[in-house]
Every structure is written in structure tokens, then in C-alpha cells.
Amino acid sequence: MSTKKVISGNYTASYASMLCRAEVVPAYPITPQTTIVEKIAEFVASGQMKAQYINVESEHSAMAACISAALTGVRTFTATSAHGLVLMHEMLHWAAGARTPVIMANINRALAPPWNVWADHTDSMSQRDTGWIQIYCSSNQEVLDTLILCYKVCEQPDIMLPAMVNLDAFILSHTSEVVDVPDQKEVDDFLPQFNPEIKLDVDEPLSFGTLAFPSSWYMEWRYKIQHAHDLAAKRLVEEAKAFEKHFGRPWGGLIEEYRSKDAEIILVTMSTIASTTKDVVDSLRDQGRDVGLVRIKSFRPFPTKDLREALGHAKVVGVADRSHTFGNEGPLFTEVKGALYNHDRRPPLVGFTVGIGGRDVLGSTIEGLYDHLEKVADGEAYKEVRWIDLIGDEEEVV
Amino acid sequence: MAGKKLPLPEEELMDPGHVGCLGCGGCHAMRYTLKATGPRTIISIPACCWAVMPGVYPNTCFNIPHINTAFEVTAASISGIRAALDARGIEDITVLGWAGDGGTADIGIQALSGMVERGTKAMYIMYDNEAYMNTGIQRSSSTPIGAWTTTTQVGKVRDYKRAPKKNMVEIMVAHGIPYTATANIAWPKDLIAKVKKAMAVDGPSFIHIFAPCPTGWRYPPDRTLEIARMATHAKIFPLYEVENGVYTVKKFKKEASISEYMMMQGRFRHLTQEEIGSISESVVRWYDKLLKFELMTQEE
Questions:
Q1: Model confidence at B158, in pLDDT bands (50, 70, 90)?
Q2: Which of B79, B85, B88 to mutate to test the interface with A (most CBs of A within 10 A)?
Q3: From CA B266, how far away is CA A394, in angstroms rounded?
């Protein structure tokens, strides 16, 4: 029997780690992640959760401990944000390279300087190439369900990839919502104990990560990580169906299409901006405007095929990024353009950089994006990339 | 000379076929250590000579489970391994972190400090060849004063390493570590006894093993053990252990000349007798201090 709890996104992640029976949890504080590991410390102290809780001295060590523990054959969990995540960078590569199914919650937060603890996707976007699965959530329920699903998929012998489950700082991390929390038996029935065949084992000693020459195997192992991502894209959808059957609640697919199948103007975005966008779409639809939303949930593996199917019919597509690749444009925008370039139907695309450093992305902001996209659809000249809601003058013309 | 067999454990957990240099001190250090730990040992090794020495995939010279990890995370890695074993209730395994001096005294010191402060039951060994030898003889904080390295070049306006060697054992003592010791590959029985003591500790232990490097120290490979022996006899590398704060220093009747020790190695060739004299004074000062520590702590 599940229980309805009114809990924050962070506590939801803590509950998920307990329900998934994470056995080793290295923990280090950082705002706005801290309440996740505080709650886990409480679970462990009270005896509710049987985990080895390691008070590491940095996030870098947290990830290193997770990797070695996972290679010893146990389930691991940690949580971080912003500077903690980028400090882990080297070990994120290591986790994927060592093929460890480490699962981590990341609270998307801006990077300093100047100091800023609010929602921004620069932290995880800059970890794009580390080999991690990256899922972006837009509700606390989705945080819980995604964590369970990630353990289920990532621990499969032909996947063995780490996964990062992303929550927007404060907007999800510290906002309480009603969450349907399954009981332990329900989760146990869905998620068996992690018992990898290959691990650090004194009875069957193996060396892990030894030197591999250019002429032998390094490149093949890297190819296998790509292959595992391709498999994971399928497996996430398959296991989501099993999840729905088991828990009675859909998880959906790698993207979510919201009133977009018959829309001419589609905005693509992620995380909590997508929740706001749904409201805007509803009200604009009421006004008879032809708009829809596509929310990307899985940024890695990237849902190229799904996006082609979801966006090919549009007259114009906008992409709202809560981060920016300096010297270019929003990373999500680049990726969506890339997905459509080799497609036979290629609508014009506009990139919007919004909500940087937690600046509010209001309904009116989103409505402004749709206004702009409508003008593009009507044939008006447009700028490919725009920074939205800058204080003072519009963007400088170079 | 007819060889006398050393009374050491027969079992070899490090097979022939490693790819270390001829005369590598780190090779002896590993072999003796594994003879002490036995097969129920998991070893974690970061970037260092020993990251390469086990061999190129699919070969390995180890008969124990072994993972490679990043340069600075040895102590975090073994913390993770111990936690995983604890999570499954497995108690009879030695968890061993094995890192060089750069990976310990420089880039890995933060993770090591964290592990020791937490009291993790794991053994950490620093095999000390006194520079970043795997990358080609660059200065580490464990490089002794006076040494040439490829990043402390001897030239007209800049010369050898001017800062003294970082003392890792004392840093461990400052953490209140239950067991720490120095060991030398020239005294395998002593080394093995210390590793066995470290294994029995219910908490963290740290052993600093002196492991001369012919390639980096610029001496012929057949003189490794001779040089190792001289370092201790000359009191440059005293053998001592600190058990719960109590110092025990191994005393030797035999003495060796610091000057002779240094002149055997190309890395010190540029030093004047005056400079060697000043280094000798600091060696004697530290050794005398150690004896005082011993006296003070044993009396307590």
C-alpha cells in the first residue's frame, strides 16, 4: 500500500534512496541539496534505512567512494548540486568508464561567480559528455519514480551506466507536493537486489581499469558505452511500461508531448519551465492559438528519433534553455537543431536563453516566447538566439 | 655468495611479468606487502608507477582483486570498498590503498585526511620514490631537499628543490591515527611485520615505504637495496612506528655516511659539501627529535 505524503523534492529523493535500499551513501553538503543527505542521515540513524553512510570530505570523494563501492557489488546513492557536481567531473567520467550504475540526484543550481544558489542547468549541462544518463524532472512524483526506474534500468548487465536525476533548485528541491510513496514491498518486488556478476571478489580476483593501448580495446570499450546508451533509451521506455503496470502510474517516455501533435508552434524545454509552459499552452489554446509543448525528459540518451517524430510537422520550433554554452548558444538548442538537421522535415528553430541564475520564468515570459514564435511562423525575420528578460536594454548588437 | 633464504611467506600474489623498471624499489614493496596481507585483500591503486606496472590489458600480475582509480581518490576509493563490504557483512578482507608519494602527499592528501579522520578500517600504503616517477621524475612534496628533478632543474638562476620533504607519518600522527609506521624494502621482515600489525588495527593505518628508484635517482639498478639500506643507516629514513601515539624507533649499530649516500645518486650530484653538511644537520636534528618523542611517549 502506498502512502500519500506532502514532501519536498529533496525529501522525495531521500525516500527513494531508502525505498531502493541504497547500501552505501557517501554524503557531502551543498545548498540546495543538503536536505537530501540530512534526511538520509535521519533514516540511517533511526534504523529505518540500512545503509553505510560515509561523511566524505568532498563531492569528488563522494563520487570516488560510490564508484569503488559499486565495483564491490553494492547499490549506491549520493546527491549533489552545482559546484559539487562540477567538482565531481573527473569521477563522473570514471563512473561511466568503469561501468558502475551509480545513481545520483543533482539539484540544478547556478555556478559562481557571482554566488547564486538558484535554478540553472549549467551544472549538469557541462557534464553532458561524461557518459551519464541524465533525466530532468518536473514534479516531485517524477523524482521518486525516475530514481526507482533508473536503478532498475542502470543495473541491468548490458546497461551498467550511471544516472543523474535532475531537479530544479528550490522550485522542486524545496517545494512540497503530494507524492504517492510506494511501500517497501512494492519497490522490492519491482527492484531486486543488485548482485553484479563481475565485481571485486577475492574468490575470483580480477583487475579493473588496467592500461589499454590505442591498438587494443580502449576504443571498443568507449563504443560499448554508446551502445549501452542506445539500449538504455529502449530499456527506459520498456521498464516504464513495467513500472506503470506495477505501480499503476505512468512514467511515459524520453519526451513528453503536450498538445503538440496538432500544434504548428512548439516550444521545447525541460524541467519545471515545462510545467509553467503547460499552463500557458492551455490558456493560449483557449484563445485559439496553435501552440504546444515538447518536454525533454531524457537529455542523455538524447531522444533524437522521438524529437523528429514530435517536431517534424511544426511550422516553427522554439527551444528554451536554462543554461548557455558561452561562445555559442543554449546546449539544448544545439542538440535539438542537431537532431532535426538530417530529418526530411526541418522547421525553423529559435533558441531562447531564459531563467539564468534562477530568474523567474513566468507565464508571461513563456507567452512572450510563443508571441515571438508566431511572428517567425508568419515569416518575420528573426534572430536565431535570444536572451530573454535581460534587465535594461535588449541584447547588445555586435 | 651462497644465498640464505629469507624467512618470508612463500605465497606470491604478485606474479612475474610486471612492467616496472629494472631495479624498481616499488616492486619489492608490493611483493612483500602482498606476502603479508595474503589473498583475502582488495587493492585500489591510483595514477602512479603501479598504475602501469601490473601490465597491459588483458594481462595483470596480481592474484588479488584490484582496481585502478583516479590520482587523488585512493583513500575515498578504499572507504567505498570498506563500506560496501560492511553493507554485506563481509569482515575478513583487508582493504588496501596503494599510492605513490605524489598521489599521497600532494594530490591525494585531502581524501587521505578525510578517511583517517573518519576512522575507516583500511590500510593505506605510500610507496615513496620521492618524485612523480611515472610521469618522468617531477618534484613532489615528498622529494627531499637538494634533489634535482625534471621540474627542479639545476641551472644558473634556479637550482634543486629547496623545500624539505613533507613528513606524512607525522601528519598521520596529528590525525590521531591508531597505527602508522615507516618501512624500508631493505628490511622485508620488518616491513611484513608492520603490514601485519596494520591489518590487525580496527581503524585506519598508514605505512610509508621507502622505495628507491634507479631511473629517477640516477644510480645503477643493481644498487637499489644498497641505497635503501644506506638511507636508513644514515638516518635519512629512520624506521619507526607509532601505535596509538607511542613511538618506537628501530636502532641500528651500523651507520652510513649521508654524504656517501647522496653522492651515489645523480640527483644530488650538484650539491656542494657545505650544502650536504647543512642537510646532514637537519637529518640528525630530526632523528634526535624522534628519539625524544619515543622517550616521551613510552614513558607516558
A1: confident
A2: B79
A3: 66
Is residue A274 within 8 A of residue A386, CB to CB? The reply is no
In a domain, A55, yes or no: yes
Report d(CA A186, CA A346) in Å as an integer: 44
Our measurement of the distance from residue A289's CA atom to the centroid of its chain's CA atoms, rounded to an integer in Å, reads 30
Q: Biggest alpha carbon distance in chain B?
A: 61
Same domain? For A183 and A268 the reply is: no
Beta bridge partners of A255: A296
Residue A65 lies in a domain: yes
Q: Using one digit for the tens of pLDDT, what is the confidence trace for B265-289?
A: 999 999 999 999 999 999 999 999 9
CATH of the domain spanning B25-299, picked from 1.10.8.60, 3.30.590.10, 3.40.50.970, 3.40.50.360? 3.40.50.970
Percent of chain B scored above 70 by pLDDT?
Answer: 99
Q: Which of A58, A91, A212 sits opposite B70 (nearest CB)?
A: A91
In a domain, A326, yes or no: yes
The pLDDT assigned to B6 comes to 75
Query: Which residues of B lie closer than 8 Å to A, measured between beta carbons?
Result: 39-42, 44, 51-52, 54-57, 59-60, 62-70, 72-73, 75-81, 83-88, 93, 110-111, 113-114, 117-118
What is the pairing mode between strands A133-136 and A163-168? parallel
Contact A254, A301 (CB under 8 A): yes
The verdict on A236 and A182 lying in the same domain is: yes
Assign residue A41 the CATH number of its domain: 3.40.50.970
pLDDT tens-digit readout, A167-197? 999 999 999 999 999 999 999 999 999 999 9
Element (H, E) at B215: helix B214-217
Number of domains in chain A: 2
Cα-based angle B95, A163, A224 (whole degrees, multiple of 5): 85
Three cell numbers at A266? 512548439
Q: What would the grid cell of residue B173 be?
A: 600522527
The mean pLDDT values, 10 residues at a time, for chain A of 398 residues are: 96 98 98 98 98 98 98 98 98 98 98 98 98 98 98 98 98 98 98 97 97 94 98 98 98 98 98 98 98 98 98 98 98 98 96 98 98 97 95 72
Which among A229, A247, A265 is the end of a domain?
A247
Q: Answer yes or no: do B81 and A74 touch at CB < 8 A.
A: no
Over residues A261-305, the pLDDT tens digits come to: 999 999 999 999 999 999 999 999 999 999 999 999 999 999 999
Query: Domain span at residue A383?
Result: 255-387
